Structures are given as C-alpha cells and as structure tokens.
C-alpha cells in the first residue's frame, strides 16, 4: 500500500452464495465488484452518482488485486477505500479487504480513477468539490 494515502470510506458487504466458485471460495472477479461497490458508495456520497445525463464521470483505467486469503461463504467483507494525492484529472485509489470479525488482510487492490468528458471520451480536470476532499486532514 502507498504510504501517502487517505481513508475515504469503510463499507461492509455480505458475501452471497453465488459469489463462490467451484473451489468453494469467492471467485477472483468478485473482489473487483467489492472494490467497485466501495468506490461507487464514496462517489455517490460526494454527489457524483453515475447517471445518463452527466457530461462528466469517473472511470477506471486500470485495476489490480492481490489475493492473500480465500474468502468463504457465509461472511461479510469490510472494504476500506483509500486515495492518494490527486493529479489534474485522476486519482489513485487503494483497497483493503477483510472479513468482519477477523483482522487479517484477505486482499488488497488498486484502481486509477480518471475523470472523463462523457461526450468526447477525453480526460477532464477533477471537479473542485472532489479535489477539496483531498485538502482536508486525513481521518
């Protein structure tokens, strides 16, 4: 994990039976959904909900995950979302995934979020209200 990061959100997500794969643990693709859910909750809390009428929107240009311990059903995962210093049009985000009731780190991930003009597909500067979040002291 990046040393200069700010905790933005902590959320809990129940593991569904259908999240499991043939090996009886949560499928690797689902971890990206858990990270996405945390990112969407944070963006919605910032009034940046994804809507068809928006002319600007956040998109990710890369994502990664390191799987450390398998997650099994039944469980509830806790995802912590962190971000680094913003650039002109992007911000790096990191994720920690744990199982509620267990302090061990089960997975960690990252995604670069870029603000985009939905009409042109080109990057645009981060909104000032979003940039202001990073100027506040870390929690």
Can you tell me the residue ranges where pLDDT is under 50 for at least 5 consecutive residues?
none
Can you count the helices?
2
What is the gyration radius calculated from CA atoms?
Answer: 16 Å
Q: Quick one: how many beta strands?
A: 5
Mean pLDDT: 93
- Sheet-strand content, in percent, reads 35-45%
Could you give the order of strands across the largest sheet? 1-3-4-5-2
Run of helices and strands: EHEEEEH
Distance between the termini: 17 Å
Which class do the helix and strand fractions yield? alpha+beta
Oligomer: single chain
Large-scale geometry: globular
Helix content: 10-25%
Largest sheet report? 5 strands, antiparallel
Structure notes:
The chain is an alpha+beta fold and 139 residues long. Helices cover 19% and strands 36% of the residues. Strands 1-3-4-5-2 form a 5-stranded antiparallel sheet, with helices on one face. A hairpin with a 7-residue loop joins β4 (90-99) and β5. The longest helix has 18 residues, at 28-45. The chain is globular. The two termini are 17 Å apart.
């Amino acid at each position: 994990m990046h040393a200069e990061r700010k905790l933005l959100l902590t959320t809990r997500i129940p593991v569904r039976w259908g999240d499991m794969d043939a090996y009886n643990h949560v499928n690797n693709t689902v971890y990206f959904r858990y990270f996405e859910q945390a990112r969407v909750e944070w963006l919605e809390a910032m009034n940046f909900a994804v809507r068809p009428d928006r002319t600007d929107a956040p998109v990710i240009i890369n994502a990664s995950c390191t799987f450390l311990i398998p997650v099994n059903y039944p469980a509830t995962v806790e995802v912590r979302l962190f971000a680094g210093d913003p650039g002109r049009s992007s911000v790096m985000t990191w994720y920690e995934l744990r199982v509620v009731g267990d302090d061990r780190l089960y997975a960690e991930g990252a995604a670069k979020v870029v603000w985009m003009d939905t009409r042109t597909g080109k990057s645009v500067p981060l909104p000032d209200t979003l940039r202001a979040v990073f100027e506040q002291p870390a929690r």
